[in-house]
Structures
1.
Amino acid sequence: MHEDAFDNRAQALARALKGVLRPLVRTMIARGVTAPAVYRLLKEVFVEVAERDFRIDGQRPTDSRISVLTGVHRKDIRTLRAAAAEGAAARSAGARRVTAMVSVIGRWLADPGLQDADGRPRALARHGTGDAPSFDSLVAAISTDVRPRTVLDELLRQGLVQLDAPGEQVHLSAEALLGGGDADQTLHFFARNVGDHISAATGNLLGDGPPFLERAVFYNHLRVESVDALEAAAREGAGQLLTALNRAAYAAQAEDAGKADAAHRFRFGVYFYRAPQDASDTDDDSDE
């Protein structure tokens, strides 16, 4: 392929990346993250991705090879690799805390033994007796490394559960069904939901394998009242789909438990974005 063709493809990708980066840069500026901090962060990510995804025969790449792949100086690569190893434990601990919280809610929504006759999550006794399901037994089924009282206190703080007047039963609140959470959870899922969405789109762009599901419906020239109605319909339909898929995934996980090849994961997400239309909006009125 001619060198000019590579240049044209790189320029086209750069233009596309600007569209991806604009909302991220808006978030950075709003939260006080400056350009020099982002430059260092980009170096870290370049080194991390080169080390993880560009190995030859499974061998960890040398500093020199990473430098060739990324353009990052070898001295910086050594520093960044050492810092990454030190920070991994702290990041993992934070992720485990959030994962335990959402796993409790997910199982509560999916386990038929924790639902009423209409399929809604039922109130649970805090402690329970015998084999009867309880909040304590639910947490213990998720993890034995965290105390049920700790999980309960955190869920109460976030408004994701409620206690009845005597404090003997725990009720899952509407906020849990709508995906509420504190700042730590919001950041956790900002990274993972957006990251996996971009990973799916990137896989399709690079042609790494079978295409991922990555579609959107978009229209313009609409009144705000019409978008309100469409958003309400999207929220209702998405909630039903996510609840059904959560239950199906919970059943599949139970079926696959203990099997040697049960080493895969998935993430399915939905979103609805709205904004006033301006001259830079060039999407056609169509399904993409």
Note: The mean pLDDT is 86.
2.
Amino acid sequence: MTPHNMRIIHRGDLPLGGFAGIVETRMVMHPGLWREARDRTDVSHGLGDFVYLASGYFKAGDGAPMHPHKDVDIVSFIPNGAVGHEGTMGHGTSIHGPGVQVQRAGTGIQHAEFSLNGQKADLVQIWFLPPEKGLAPAYQDFTLRKGEMTTVLGGSGDTFKNAMTCQIGLLEPGDRIATRHRFIAFISDGEAFASGTPVSAGDIVEGDGLELVTETGCDLVLIQYTETFQ
């Protein structure tokens, strides 16, 4: 038994996929939304209203054409590069890495996403069920700072309310992050020790509690229930 009933999923053990100009590995797939995930033991099945995570990149000068979303909260973390958006919530918006945009699709949106400046752009995209259906579409942008965990969804701050709290941090060597509650975390970059077990870029970590200490520093996505986060 690993500490805190911890499980680690390695991105390199999963199939590489994608669509249009996006290359990605789907690492979290809730069986209620993806029937093919029901019998899969190699991916995470999510936590509460956290239903999906994919890690990948936009090809240089390419992306996803106009497509719809409805009744989903989407966190797009761009670790490196720059991504542009067009659609029903505005043309010309952009995310410059390291940065985050959270889209509340609500009653429905259409948008396209694409790399800017003719360069590849890294992407971590995370989906959550909203607290209720039929909410007004909106979006928020977040700037990330070294050595800090930024709450981008849920929690008690000025974010879209959600049953889950999503934090993203650009951690420096020696930084420590801990939770005594059920969680799922994604290491986007760098190396760390999760409850004493080495983890590195591309790893999903899930369990009943976490004590994470960075080694080289790392980019971390941490998700847990809002009710236990507060």
Note: The first helix runs from residue 226 to 229.
3.
Amino acid sequence: MGAGDENQPVYHKKTFENIPEEKRRRILAVAIGEFANKGFDNANINVIASKAGVSVGSLYKYFNTKQDLFLTAVHHGISILEDTIGPLSQADMDVREKLEQIIRAVQTSSRQLEDLIKLYNEMTSENNAELVRRISQDMETVSAAVYTKMIRQAQEEGLIRGDIDPRMFAYLLDNLFMNLQFSYACGYYQERFKIYAGDDILSRDDFVVEQMLKFIEGAFTMAQEKTALNQQKSEAAGETLSR
């Protein structure tokens, strides 16, 4: 989540940019589906080329390696998700409205871009340490900055508690959104969602939004409410003693 192709590293050759956009999109869509469903190690370049309607030789004219094709597919997918969700976190609205819009965008995009979410999930299970490092550095830096800024601004405006660490809460917040993505797009997470929240949970979008907002708001405001409650108790006790 975050913003923009201009911030993304380039893993393809210049020749890939010279082919028609429709052809580029077709190759990336097929690659995303193959990597999402087979994983990096088991994905087959021959299968990708065949389904995309190009030769294997042509693919290697566009990408030096299978890893470069994978990374290009990943960044293409991430840029779509960033364009869908990223601007909402920076919109001119209060923090609760931002959170609601982000949650609803996660619900919608996870269904419309199922293969992208599956690919995102697949990346989290990769055993290639260097590949994981490159992906996480490229894709998480932007969202970390966006959510941290959103939380800091809300603290400055007095909308959420001031004793939380914005970077740590940004991490926890992004984990919630990531898990929600997987819960709408990935088989295991869908079944897990049903076990915890009921068999019909995938059709109860408004309920999910409502409950997630309550959960997040509780984390953002609990200390303040507890302090207020303790103050009320102290004042009540003082009034009793003064009688």
Note: The chain has one domain: 5-242.
4.
Amino acid sequence: MIWDLTGEIYTGMWNYEPPFPEVEILPLPKVDWVKTEVYCDIFSGLHSQSGTYLETPMHLLGDASYPLGDVPIERLVGMDAVVLHLPEISPSGTRTPISRTQLLDFDIPEGVAILISTGWGRFWKESFYLEESPYFTYDAVEYLISKKPFLLGTDFPRWENLEHPQGFFPAFYDANILMLAPCVNLEQLPVCGKLTALPLRVDTTCCAPVRAVFEA
């Protein structure tokens, strides 16, 4: 079976705060230099973290790291992946932390793609999707780093708690781990399978929208 893990991009979708532009899909005006009508769209406001995206440590480390285009494509197709199914999180008006304790019972081999499922992808089109997103505690990310994953992915969009920062991103990016987020449908996946995540081929960027699929 194959599952699509990619969140839909659409006009008015959730978005990170300014200066990130808002996504708007607009029809292309009439093309005067062809004789027939043609149909196309303008993706206004599309940016490297629109929807589900893949990211390298360059996002934090700048020129000390490498752009997304330098990741060999063969590393992004058919990755060994494990899914950690945490209890599903529902909106509560506040943000729910994910701690190290919640991860200890899972069997996580080294060097694979790790996907964290909380069920939050169910709320992709809800107004609270970003503001009430679950987040990682420092000790959770520290533990995941110790498993030396090639990639870490989640079904929630905001890993950090901006009001009470956990401060794990320097350690995460120093460990040279790719980020895949936010995904949908992780709660439907089996524990093990193959992950493919193919980003747009954009020159020099640290991250780009991706089509991600899981096969088992």
Note: The first strand starts at residue 2 and ends at 4.
